[in-house]
Write a structure and sequence with these properties.
33% of the residues lie in helices and 29% in strands. With 198 residues, the protein is of the alpha/beta class. α1 packs parallel to α5.
């Protein structure tokens, strides 16, 4: 249904810790195997943990083995590693690393168009850290205004770009909780493969 709908963007929202990353990654694996006519690309954001304590985050590209550092707790860095005032709470955000991944995704998008295979973006996530980069915001806006399919986890906050995405009327928004995530996952699997319109 979703594939035949005029609304080609799906945003997964929810409180921290409800499993949004696991949800979108499992959905990606299902879709990649079920929809071979699409070119899937994007990234998943993973936590860096040590002894059960979160130290930071890395970006893991879906079509490449590389992982790049997105954010690290300030006290774990030395002064030479902090080159700007890009902080979200206690985390320093390496926006330059995020922007390098966008260069890779730009190439993936270009390759998709050249090969006449429709692009399908998986972005985890559009949140306070990521929108510190104007290049990231521009990239997401281009996807929103394109015919490409997109599934993304979407954070909350008062930042203008986050509000703009939350107000994007041509998207489907879904609130994931610990109680409904299993049901929603099974529902989405059906919505993506059955005929009809969403």
């Amino acid at each position: 249904m979703f594939l035949n709908s005029p609304r080609k963007k799906l945003f997964i929202c929810g409180s921290p810790g409800v499993g949004k990353t696991t949800f979108i990654y499992n959905l990606y694996n299902f879709l990649k195997n079920s929809l071979p006519t699409f070119h899937f690309c994007g990234f998943i954001t993973k936590e860096i943990k040590e002894h059960g304590k979160r130290k930071g985050f890395v970006i893991s590209l879906l079509n490449d083995s590389q992982e790049v550092l997105l954010a690290m707790r300030k006290e774990l860095l030395n002064d030479s590693q902090i080159k700007s005032q890009t902080f979200v709470g206690k985390y320093y955000v390496f926006t330059e690393n995020l922007e390098k991944t966008l260069d890779f995704l730009e190439e993936e998008w270009k390759k998709s168009i050249e090969n006449k295979v429709p692009p399908f973006f998986i972005i985890d996530e559009i949140g306070k850290m990521e929108v510190l980069s104007s290049k990231f915001c521009d990239f997401i806006e281009r996807i929103l205004n394109s015919p490409a399919h997109l599934i993304a986890t979407l954070g909350y906050g008062d930042l203008s770009f986050l509000k703009k995405v939350h107000n994007f009327s041509q998207a489907v928004f879904c609130e994931v909780t610990k109680e409904n995530r299993s049901f929603l996952f099974e529902k989405f699997k059906l919505d993506f493969v059955r005929e009809g319109k969403l």
